[in-house]
Amino acid sequence: MANLNPHGLTVSMIFDAMSLNYGEGVGNISELKKLSRSGELLSYESRQAIRYDIYRMLREFFNIPETPIKEGKKDKKETLQFDPDAKIDKYPEIDLFGYMKTTEGENAITRPAVVRISPAISLEPMFLDVEFGTNLNMVERARKLFPDKKDKINPDPFQFEHHLSLYSYTITIELDRIGEDPNDNISLAPQEKARRVNMVLDVLKVLNRNIKGRMESLNPLFAIGGVYNVKNPFFMGRLKIQYNRETRKYLLDTPIIQSVLEMSFNGEAIKDNTHIGVVKGYWENEEEIQKLVEEDKFHNVNDFFEALKQKVNEYYGV
Fold this sequence. Notes:
There is one protein chain. This protein has two domains: 8-127 and 163-316, no CATH class; 129-159, no CATH class. It is 24% helix and 34% strand. It is built from seven helices and 24 strands. Helix 1 (47-62) crosses helix 4 (190-205) and helix 4 packs antiparallel against helix 7 (301-316).
């Protein structure tokens, strides 16, 4: 097994999207997943939904193999699980997101996720906007096709809860655990470890979500993070915004970020390893944001991810 110093990569991002994750509906009403905080309702996209879209795009862009599944048993009940014979050297999915394998009569074998994902929580409160609709076009076509039944063919109404907002979420990757599985005594080559992490970074740059006939962009408008000598989501819950109604632009709350950047751990300043990426022209206080880090660590979004990929390569020595 490789003997790498424990290091973590963390990235916190803000993106603009609408109605990302529905929960259990009531009748013909589809309700968004939501949380309450300080007397307000916030919509969110679950960790599982984000993990699904990262995996979907890893399959689409990089053609990673699909991890086989089979029935297993847990507490004498049948359950679906990854095939116990599937190993991380062949299947990047279980390397990145972990697994639990059970065999009857034996203890479960587990691999905790190496890529840790927080929910994407809205930065603006909900106002319970609702869309009402019906399948009117389908009904009109059916009435023409079956004129003798047209009085019995009626529209099916539906209601969708909606929320258009900025959202933030955080990805944290345990770099020293990528490509290492003591359960099967597997240790991958440094080049493969770097490739897998960098594939995830490439996906995060262009992440999207297909839902209710829409494709929502989860592409970052703001991203902050780096490779650190400690595994910690430094900027999770630290991204706050304000909205200027006169200029119709958003502002990022920089004093909170500045206080995080002033921290240090084991002799290394957090600021020294932190990069920032922005969609230029979006943030009203862009110049203020730029001053948070050194000039060579302030980028557009594409260069931000390229800078992180370079740091990943340096960590693995490739």
